[in-house]
Amino acid sequence: AGEPLVVLTPVLWWLVKRTRAGKAMRAVSEDMAAAQLRGIPIDRTVSLTFFVGGFLAGTAGVAYCATYGVVFPLVGYLPGLKAFVAAVIGGIGSIPGAILGGLVLGLAESVFPYVLQQAGWTSAFAWKDAIAFALLIVILVVKPTGLLGRAVREKV
User: Fold this and answer.
1) Is 143 in a helix, a strand, or coil?
2) Pick from 144, 112, 150, 104: which is nearest to 128 by CA?
């Protein structure tokens, strides 16, 4: 059920990096006033950005529910929280960073509990969520911009 997500990732990258709408999205996120002065329709660009985000979230929700066969009102709470953690780990604003953050988070949630279980901690897999958030704290302390994030200087 995750096949559409594999296709949508490069489509999202193409949309953001290679189209006029993506250029407008990046300009509005960088400096809204300057983008408006350049003639970019702010309201339409923000609406498109929310539409794309909602569409991708809905697609991910359908894929998740189809994979696990459950649907209830808060089914996406923990996956959404972990998606945010993965984006922070990879670097906010970086699509390749979000992919890398998701891979790092997935490996950490699989490998660390396995190693701890082999070391004798029988309930290590019950703590995989805590391991994910501990990794988030470590990344924020060591490299606050994420693995592929860039520090942006604020103009005053």
Assistant:
1) coil
2) 112
Burial 108-140 (b: 16+ CB within 10 A, else e): bbeebbeebeeeeeeebeeeeeebbeebbeebe
CA 91 – CA 73 distance, rounded (Å) = 29
- Indicate the pTM of the whole model: 0.84
Q: What gap in Å lies between CA 134 and CA 126, rounded to an integer?
A: 14
pLDDT in tens, 111-129: 999 999 999 988 999 999 9
Please choose, from the candidates 85, 98, 100, 80, the residue with its C-alpha nearest in 3D space to the C-alpha of residue 139. Answer: 85
Burial of 49 from C-beta contacts in 10 A (0-12 / 13-18 / 19+): middle
Return the HEC string of 95-112: HHHHHHHHHHHHHHHHHH
Half-sphere exposure at residue 80, Cβ-oriented, CA atoms within 13 angstroms = 12
Q: CA-based Rg of the chain, rounded to a whole angstrom? A: 18
* Tokens read off for 56: 């991708």
Output phi, psi for 149, to 5 deg.
-75, 155
